[in-house]
Amino acid sequence: MEVHFTPEQEAQLVQIASQSGTDAERLVKEAALRLVEEDARFRAAVREGVAQADRGEFIEEEEMDACLEQMLRS
Length: 74
Fold this sequence. Notes:
By secondary structure, the chain is mainly α.
């Protein structure tokens, strides 16, 4: 697979990689792999949430609003 960046984007990646003590190719590869892993975690969490809802394991909107208000006050 090939990914193409503008010269400006490539320069930014090279700068970030240099500051991180790595090269741009490794930086981009690691970032892409983190994206894939995070996407898998997100999809699994959504599937679990849907399964919980299907089992009737959820809270009502009013209870959720109260929880959010309490979190914002903390």
